[in-house]
Amino acid sequence: MNPPKRLRVTQNEASGGEEEEEEERRRAVDVSIIMPVYNASCWLDECLQAILDQDFTGTMELSVFDDASTDDSRKVVEAWRDRLEARGISVVISGHNSAKPRGVGYAKNKAISQSCGQYLCFQDADDVMLPERVCLQYEASLLHPNSLIGCKVQRLPEGSTERYTRWINTITQDQLTTQVYTSHGPTVIMPTWFCSKSWFLKVGWFDEGGKGVPEDLLFFYHSIRQGGGVARVDQCLLVYRYHEKAATHSVTEETIWKLRVDFLQERVLSQWESFTIWNAGKQGRKLYRWLSPANQKKVKAFCDVDENKIQKGFYTYEESKQRPKPKIPILHYKDASAPFIICVKLDMTGGVLEENLNSLQLKEGKDYYHFN
Q1: pLDDT tens-digit readout, 134-184
Q2: Domains in the chain, ordered, with CATH?
Q3: How far apart, in Å, are the Cα atoms of 367 and each of 173, 187, 270, 351?
Q4: What is the pLDDT of residues 197-229, one digit of tens each?
Q5: How far apart are CA 86 and CA 337, in angstroms?
Q6: Which of 94, 149, 221, 252 is 20 to 30 A (C-alpha) from 85?
Q7: According to the UniProt record, where is the region Disordered (predicted)?
Q8: With contact defined as beta carbons under 8 Å apart, do 187 and 149 qualify?
Q9: Which of 95, 125, 100, 97 is nearest to 111 (CA)?
């Protein structure tokens, strides 16, 4: 399903001069690799070599926007231009030299706005794509035209963020949709995204709020609101690097929490007349406190396995302005009734949570959703 190779029109061959050549370039590019860059010179050689090694037979373009790097990142990319263009990959490089970077969302938007591809392949400058990535995700995008396409990853250094990496690689295709409320964020992670440019433009541009703004999660949720799908190539196509300077570390837990609660209320709780919060501890009570007053009234119980919590009988919402203050029963999970919002962290109980859920013969996405 690779598109056929197409001959590029040079300036001398184009009958209409430079404008016609530019129009041909825009028409011809199948995939634009979108790469924001900020102080990434130590990783760029490996990243760009991997782009050079792609086995995709269609036309490709590398669109780079340098977000005020203070190292020689732009110089490194420029040094690769001849090799990439000799391989048939056109290169567009721009940037700015302001005193401060404008942020990942801004840099991605700039790289996209100057790109010409019918499809967008997002690439972080510190990651490395495997040779089959563009080809396989392009094929998947043809089958899922209004979707964000991800892939499995190899984490580097090996063993870092072990639970998170296992979640990325093992959730099922159905869970790509049902687990969008978990604290892990997008179920297909931003460094693996691939989509049609037409779908991206329909969803809209990335938030340009800068440092601390989860532009990927905001876009991901808005894509779902627009009716977009989520899919994954079930093959490792990216080496996903972990390091302390990664932009994701600047996003606060509270910011993510609010986005998730709002999306949960909008997409799930608005459809339910009542529900149970699975976890009478800190995380379950926090979710309750963050709910709207209307959704707080829908909470018929908390449930747990901790006998000490169950013996207390009730959770009293002390901060409530209601009189008398709301008192929500605390039950053993076997005595509680669906639907549930699960506020117990995945992959942290040695399989006990999963066994308990299975024992009740519940269906994820109907009888319960994971929130943590």
Answers
A1: 999 999 999 999 999 999 999 999 988 999 999 999 999 999 999 999 998
A2: 18-250 (3.90.550.10), 268-370 (3.40.50)
A3: 18, 20, 15, 19
A4: 999 999 999 999 988 899 999 999 999 999 999
A5: 64
A6: 149
A7: 1-26
A8: no
A9: 95
